[in-house]
Structure formats: structure tokens, C-alpha cells
Amino acid sequence: MTVSSIPVIDISKGELVVPQLRSALHEWGFFYITGFDQLLPQMLLQSLVDSFRSFFASPKHEKMRINMKLPPVHAWRGYFPVGDEYTNGRPDLKEGLYMGGEEDPDCGLPMHGLNRFPEGSPLSKLVPEYLKCIERVAFRVLGLLSLTLGLEEGFLEGQFGGKPPFTPFRAFNYPPTARAAEYLGDEVAKEVGDQLFSVGKHTDYGLLTFLWQDRSGGLEVMREGRWTAAPPTPVEGMSEYDHLVVNIGDMLELWTKGEYKATPHRVRRHPDSAGDRLSIPYFFDPPFHAKINPLPTIPGQSIGESGDEAYAHPSGVTLPIVYGNYILLKVARVFPDLAHTASILDGQEQGDVTKLSSFEDTIREEERVR
User: Are 89 and 182 contacting, i.e. CB atoms less than 8 angstroms apart?
Assistant: First the structure.
């Protein structure tokens, strides 16, 4: 029995699910996927989840040994405690571990470097293996997405220019809202009041997000002005490890010129929820140095609502733009204390600074009126 109104798509069926995927992208911007066990073994996912649970259950002083504010801070890797991450200018009620594909720590690029794990943790082996497997799942979905646009299956992947995707990876642990004052302090908890969310309303910044969530619930999706729950198990009888939630981000909206729109979502836990909530999002984005151009117009078909004109995204960002320039400012808003480590890439395309300045002004105005 299906318990979610959000579509469930079996990606093992290949092109047969293209119409269903196209509908899900238009109507929801969110969907569940199944049928990926040949690409991502359930046992690997279960082992990863168990290891993250053990990490977050460890004493805070042990977790702070790999605090992401420790040098080198430009890599944006490591642990952050509850209250350090912000959404829309308000602290989130969650702690987390920032990870990603590992690169040369001396490359000097923001958001690039080595992961930080506790000494002897199985995460040091499980995370690279998971990233390798989930990337295969992501490329499979990207191929199907290409087909929904009337493009060749490999067209979108071809825009990566043979370079690896940029893949930020996170694990988040959400304590019960009843303990907000314990983590954030009485003054902050009282000031935020009923506007306290585990994560506030937002859209993701990249192409696609692949999320594993435990059975606690709390994820909500905005559709037609109303919040709809995205339950942990969309179909009765499913295990925790045979499905993932997928949603599209702002860059895919820009890339498709509004054909597919990023959907606002949030995590709002019931006030009486007792235990912690664990979620593990994987962000599948274009290569860091990739210049992102609008998708071409196909003969006999128009991609996006703007045709050949530049798509007017609500943020003020327009294409073309170098992806790394775009993402640096977005992520710097999440951790204000680390914002000074985010710098525009050398060799940037002409006009990126203007686009990002416009974007930053838009964000400031949004936060002023909230």
C-alpha cells in the first residue's frame, strides 16, 4: 500500500519510467527511487547508517576533535555542533558532518581537501565506497532526466566535459525540538519560538539531491502553497534501505530555464518526537570549474518557459556561470563564521561577479523582510 502522494520510481526499468519521471519533475520536483540495488548494495548503506549513528552518539568533545573550523578551514570538511548551521538567518536544530570526494589538500580550492573522521572509524572506508556507488545511481538518474527533456541519454553527462561531478556529502543528526533550549540557549529558543525548525524552508542549490532518511519523519515538501509530508517509507513493507528521496535544485532549474523548478522543503519535527533523527544527503552537482550554459532549444520543442531568452531565476542569477563561483556564495551563507574562506575562482568568466553580487543583494533583501 502506497502511503505517500510523492511518486515512487523504479529506475531499474530504464526508459519505461521516463513519462513517470517527467510528470514527477513537473508536478513535484521530488520523487522516491527504488531499483538501484545493483548499483548501491543495501548492506553498504546499512553499514554506513550504523557508523554515522555511532559517531553522533559519541561525546561532543570527541566529535569536536574534527571540527570543521579547525585548519585547514577552506576545505569545509568535518563536524559542526547544533546551532552552527543557519537557514534563512536562523540557527538549525541539527549537528552534522561535512564530507565529499577527497582531493589534494594543497590544491587551495575552497570546499576541496581531505575528509575528517575520528581515528579508527569505519567511516574512513565506508564513505569513499558509498560515494563511488551513489555516483553511479546519480548518473543513471541524470540519464533518465536527459530523456525527459527530449535529449540523448548521455547529453547532460556530456556537459561535464569528462570531469568528475562536484559531490558534497553530509550526515545530519536532529535532536528533539523539546531540547532546543539545551542546545541553543533559552534566549535563542524563546526568540525563534514556533519558527524553530530542524531545517528551515529552503531549496537546494545544485542539480540533484539523493537523501536517505530514518523512520523518524519530519521532511515536508511545498506543493501548490501547502506542505506535504515526505514519509520515510513511501510504500508499506519497504525496508529503510531500498529507496532514496531525490529532489532537484536551483542549478537544474537554471539549466532547464524553468522547465523543472526546485521545490522548497523543510524539516519540521513534531514537538513530542522523542529520539534523534538521522538523514544522509548526497549532492550531485556539475564539476566545480564547469561553465554552465542554458540547455539548447530542440527543434520542435522548447525547453523552459523563457525560450531563447535568459531565464529570470528568483535569485537573480543567470547563465552562463562557472559553477564553483555560484556555489561558494550559496554555501557561505550557511556558515557565516566560515564565509571568509569562500573566494571567487581565479580565471572566472566575465560577468560572474556581477551576477553573484546581484544574487547576494537579493538574499539580503529576502532576509530583511522575513
Answer: no
- HSE-CB for 177 with a 13 A CA cutoff: 18
Whole-angstrom distance, CA of residue 141 vs CA of residue 26: 15
Q: What is the pLDDT of residues 19-76, one digit of tens each?
A: 999 999 999 999 999 999 999 999 999 999 999 999 999 999 999 999 999 988 888 8
Comparing 268 with 283, the larger pLDDT belongs to 283
| Least-confidence region, from 56-60, 169-173, 268-272, 365-369 | 365-369
